[in-house]
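// run 5 | inverse folding | seed 20
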C-alpha cells in the first residue's frame, strides 16, 4: 500500500492503544508522523522504535487543556509544509453510573473527547482548506451509536462527535476534504485502565470486554482500509457491532438484548 508514503499524518493519542498502533502501521507504510499525547517520554520511546524515525516529530498535546493548537499546527507547517491526514484518536473512557458521577467528571470527559478533539480539527482545517485537500479521521465508538451501562458521559461525548463531523464532511466536500468516523467496539487496548470513575479517579482495571476484544492490530488495519476507501463511517469489532444494525431495524429486540450485556 502506497497511499501514505511521504504523507504528513498527525495522530493524537499516540502514546497507547489505537493511536499508537496507527503510528506503527503508517510508519511501516512510509508516512511522516506527528505523534501527539501528554507523555513526551512515552512518545519519544515510540518514535525511536519506528522506521525512518528521523522523519517523525513529537508534539506534546493535552486534550483537556485545548489551547495553542493553532501554534502547534504552524510548527507542523514550518517543518513539513502541509498536513495530509489528521487522526483524532485521543480520548478517555468512563466506568460510573449517572447517579454517582460528578458534574466535574461529566465536563472533563466532554472537554477531552469533544472540545479537545474538535479544537485540533479547527486548527488544522485552515491548512487543509488552503491546500484544498486533506482527510480527518475521528475515533468515535459504538457507544456513539447508542448508550450503555457506565458510559453516560462517554457515550454523550461520542454522540456529539458524530453530529459535528457529519456536518463537517458535508461542508468541506467542496474543498476536497474527507472525513471518516470510526466506531470501534470491544478492542484489546488499555482504555479501561484509565477510564474515569464517578469521583474522577482511574478505573485502574483491564476489563474482560477489552481483554477478549479484537486485537488492536486488526482494528487499526480495518481503520486504515476504511480511510483509504474514504468511507464516511466504519464499524470495527466482532459480534458486538451487530447491535448498531439491530437498534436501527429491530429496536424492540435491541433493548431486550442490550440490557443483558455486561458493562465491563
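// decoded
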Amino acid at each position: 500500500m502506497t497511499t501514505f508514503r511521504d504523507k504528513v499524518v498527525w495522530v493524537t493519542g499516540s502514546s497507547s492503544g489505537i493511536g499508537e498502533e496507527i503510528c506503527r502501521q503508517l510508519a511501516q507504510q512510509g508516512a511522516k508522523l506527528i505523534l501527539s499525547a501528554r507523555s513526551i517520554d512515552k512518545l519519544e520511546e515510540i518514535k525511536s522504535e519506528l522506521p525512518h524515525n528521523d522523519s517523525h516529530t513529537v508534539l506534546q498535546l493535552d486534550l483537556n487543556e485545548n489551547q495553542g493548537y493553532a501554534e502547534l499546527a504552524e510548527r507542523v507547517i514550518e517543518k513539513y509544509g502541509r498536513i495530509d491526514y489528521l487522526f483524532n484518536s485521543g480520548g478517555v473512557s468512563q466506568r460510573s453510573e449517572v447517579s454517582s458521577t460528578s458534574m466535574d467528571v461529566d465536563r472533563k470527559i466532554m472537554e477531552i473527547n469533544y472540545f479537545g478533539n474538535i479544537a485540533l480539527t479547527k486548527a488544522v482545517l485552515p491548512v487543509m482548506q488552503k491546500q484544498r485537500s486533506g482527510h480527518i479521521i475521528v475515533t468515535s465508538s459504538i457507544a456513539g451509536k447508542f448508550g450503555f451501562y457506565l458510559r453516560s458521559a462517554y457515550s454523550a461525548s461520542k454522540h456529539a462527535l458524530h453530529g459535528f463531523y457529519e456536518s463537517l464532511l458535508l461542508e468541506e466536500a467542496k474543498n476536497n476534504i474527507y472525513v471518516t468516523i470510526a466506531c470501534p467496539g470491544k478492542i484489546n487496548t488499555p482504555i479501561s485502565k484509565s477510564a474515569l470513575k464517578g469521583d474522577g479517579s482511574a478505573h485502574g482495571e483491564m476489563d474482560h470486554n477489552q481483554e477478549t476484544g479484537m486485537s488492536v492490530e486488526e482494528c487499526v488495519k480495518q481503520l486504515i482500509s476504511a480511510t483509504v476507501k474514504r468511507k464516511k463511517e466504519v464499524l470495527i469489532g466482532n459480534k458486538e457491532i451487530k447491535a448498531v444494525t439491530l437498534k436501527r431495524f429491530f429496536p424492540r429486540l435491541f433493548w431486550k438484548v442490550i440490557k443483558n450485556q455486561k458493562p465491563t
